[in-house]
Amino acid sequence: MKRLLICLLTLILCLSLVPAALAAKTFSDVPGNHWAYSYVSTAVQKGWVNGMSDNQYQPGGTVTGAQFLTMVVRAFYPGDIPAGVADPWYQPYVTAGDKHGLRTGAGLSAAKDLTAGLTRYQMAQVMDNLLSAAGVRAPASFDPATSIADWSAVPASYRESVANTYGLGLLTGMDDKGTFAGTSSMNRAQAAAVMCRLGDAVSVQSPGTDPVTPADMVSNQALLNQANARFEEQYYFLYGLEPGAVFDQVWEVAFEAPGPEGYPVPWFRVTEPGMNSMADIQRVWETYFARSWAIPAKYLASYREANGRLYSCNQGIGDDITIQSMKVEKILSRSGQKATLLAKVYHRDPWNGSTYTEDILYNMIWEDGQWKCSGLTWTY
User: Could you check whether the bond before residue 350 is cis, i.e. omega within 30 degrees of 0?
Assistant: First the structure.
């Protein structure tokens, strides 16, 4: 009985550890021996920051004013973040930060300031605005003139914030002399370290429920631009029409063999550079479409691999002469890493000149650091 009880307790303990283990996030560019590993791990686990892709944190990447405000708001004022999708992506976090004066004196009033790299002076000011509201000040005995090597060069408008953040040990010197170097930019690794130190100095609220992802950082207009840059290629690639990403072929019959319908059809050699196998088909597919959308079997049936070459029996390749243009016109819905857009294909009948339009629901998903097509659905 005692042995059974011990086993049960062990099992319960192991199960209790599963969520934490599953929640742990690792990045290939922040290995265990990286100086910021513990800071990045903590900041990500608490929901203050996210990676720039599934396995990349980009520790050396520049932090913008909008990104740092987002980190601070998610840590200390998550309850003030307005709900809903916004454009630009950072507007809800700026709005929440403004309720607490986070931008005061930081030179982050314009959009161009928010999207530019954040300087150490600006970061010190944002941090000091938070610290002042929380009543956290450096010891009165701290003398910045003797501790900060370039104190005489610090602008008067930033002196209080630099002295307070430096005196509290939240920001440190950039060299062994204690040089503050306030005009230099902060990177993502340094920002994670600063957030962890801030979390020790000021009480942190519960993390928000909408962690910012790289997908969120793409504005609605930028998403539309990306969709339009890819939609025509994706449409033509999927349906075998020129002038899209259809593979070049030699139109001399290489051999006859059963095709998708089961009866003999001509097969033509694919001459597109780098296209020699079914694996190449899969690779190209994944540049246009999400992995969650498998290549349709009917599409794959039009290709076969033999003797180290790729062959196609796709006789449907050719212009659809009715198509005049196509355009992704608006975003219908967007949440996190998924979006549904409305695309229109404009046709003109070559015989009677009449025009008509096809409406297509164009689903997209954030994958491999970009938006990819995850489905096309005709609305009729």
Answer: no
pLDDT tens across the length of the chain (380 residues): 333 333 433 333 333 333 333 345 689 999 999 999 999 999 988 888 888 877 889 999 999 999 999 999 999 988 888 876 667 888 889 999 999 999 999 999 999 999 999 999 999 999 999 999 999 999 999 999 999 999 999 999 999 999 999 999 999 999 989 999 999 999 999 999 999 999 999 987 755 555 566 777 777 888 888 899 889 888 888 877 654 456 888 888 999 999 888 889 899 999 988 999 999 988 888 888 998 898 888 888 889 999 899 998 875 556 678 888 999 999 998 877 889 999 999 999 989 989 999 999 999 998 887 889 999 998 86
- Please count the other Cβ atoms lying within 10 Å of the Cβ belonging to residue 56: 15
DSSP string, 21-54: HHH----TTS-TTSTTHHHHHHHHHTTS---SSS
Spell out the residues 6+ positions from residue 94 whose beta carbon is closer than 8 angstroms to its own.
Answer: 66, 69, 103, 114
Cβ contact 265:259 at 8 Å: yes
Q: What number of other Cβ atoms are within 10 A of residue 379's Cβ? A: 8
31 preceded by cis ω (within 30°)? Answer: no
* Helices (H), ranges, the chain: 2-23, 37-45, 65-76, 91-98, 111-114, 120-134, 144-147, 159-167, 188-201, 220-239, 278-288, 297-300
Angle between helices 120-134 and 188-201 (to 10 degrees): 20
Exposed/middle/buried for residue 38 (C-beta within 10 Å: 0-12, 13-18, 19+): middle
For every residue of 159-215, which 3-state class applies, written as one string?
HHHHHHHHHCCCCCCCCCCCCCCCCCECEHHHHHHHHHHHHHHCCCCCCCCCCCCCC
Contact 149/177 with Cβ under 8 angstroms? yes
Euclidean distance between CA atoms 326 and 358, whole angstroms = 9
For residue 298, CA distances in Å to 126, 200, 251 come to 57, 58, 21
